[in-house]
Each structure stands twice: as structure tokens, then as C-alpha cells.
Amino acid sequence: MSDTKTTDSKSVPDVKELQVKLTDLAIQLGKHYKVVLDYSVQSIDNVETVLAKISDEYRKTKNEEGIKGMALEMAAYIITVIEKNILKGAWSRDSEEMGKDSFPYELGDGKVIFPYAWCLKRIYDGEGEDIVSKFKTLVSSK
Hints:
The protein has 142 residues and is mainly alpha-helical. The protein has one domain: Four Helix Bundle (Hemerythrin (Met), subunit A), CATH 1.20.120.
């Protein structure tokens, strides 16, 4: 499943362990915002709700503390939903295409997506960067 778009697979086990921890944190973040994240494809709408609330807070305060961590947590959750409901893939830390700490996810069909970037853009750029449409277009049509 190796491809030139992602770096060597040595980082995959570390990222896989991190995925479990980050997904648990995403569930807790959802609870904080009174949003249920139940691992269903439909729960991607709830991820959008959480990201919208984080974005609203960011727009009010301009405080960036913790935003990358929350975006990474939501990205891990999105990947977990993909793996539980659609197809397995490989999550890496770095990408030749997007660079260091871009956290690409290579779907089992070879397509590479960047849920971490989706989440960051949604937080910083607002509702025009809705992750539900990206998910439906790039993933759930599988």
C-alpha cells in the first residue's frame, strides 16, 4: 500500500496508536459541546457541528491555543469512522505532497485525503470549508 505520496511506513504504527488516543479525546470534545460522536457515517455531521463551535470561539477570541490539537482529534475521529464503516487505509504523519505533520490518510483504494487539513481549514476559515461535503465527495462515495 506504499505510494510516493506518503513517507515511509515506519511512522504508521506510532500514528495508529495516536489515532486511538486522539479519537477518545474527540469523543470527549464532542461531549463538551453536547454532541454525540457514535462512529457512524452520519456522525460526520456532528463533527462539523463541533468544528463550527470551535471556529466560532476562535473568531471571537482569536486564541489559537489548542486548535491544532482539536483539529487532529477530529481528524483521527473521521479516520476511525472511515475504517469502521467504509474501508481500511493507512494514516501517516508526513506527506511528500503536503509536507511535515500534514497527517495524510491513504484510503485502501490508493486515494490520499487530508482530514487534518480539512479540520484546520474549517476552524480557521469558517463554514465555507464544511467537512461534510468533503467527506461525502471524497470518501463516502466508496
